[in-house]
Amino acid sequence: MIRTRTTRRGGCSGVPYARRALVFGLPTVWLVAATVWELACPFSSHDGMAPRFVTCAAFLALVAYLLTGVRLGPVRELRRIREVARAAQQVLLRPLPPRLDGLALAAGQLSASRGAMVGGDLYEAVATLHGVRVVIGDVRGHGLAAIGAVAAILGSFRDAAHDEDTLENVMRRLERALQRHLRDRSRSEHPAVNGTDPDNPLAEEFVTVLLLEIHEDGEVLALNCGHPWPYRLRRTAEPLAGGDPLPPLGPFPLPADLSAHRCTRLLPDEALVLHTDGAEDARDANGHFFSLQRALTEAAALGSPVSPAVVVQRVHTALLRHTGGRLADDVALLVLRNDRRRVPAQPGDPALRRSRVEPSNR
Question: What is the pTM of this model?
Answer without folding.
Answer: 0.71
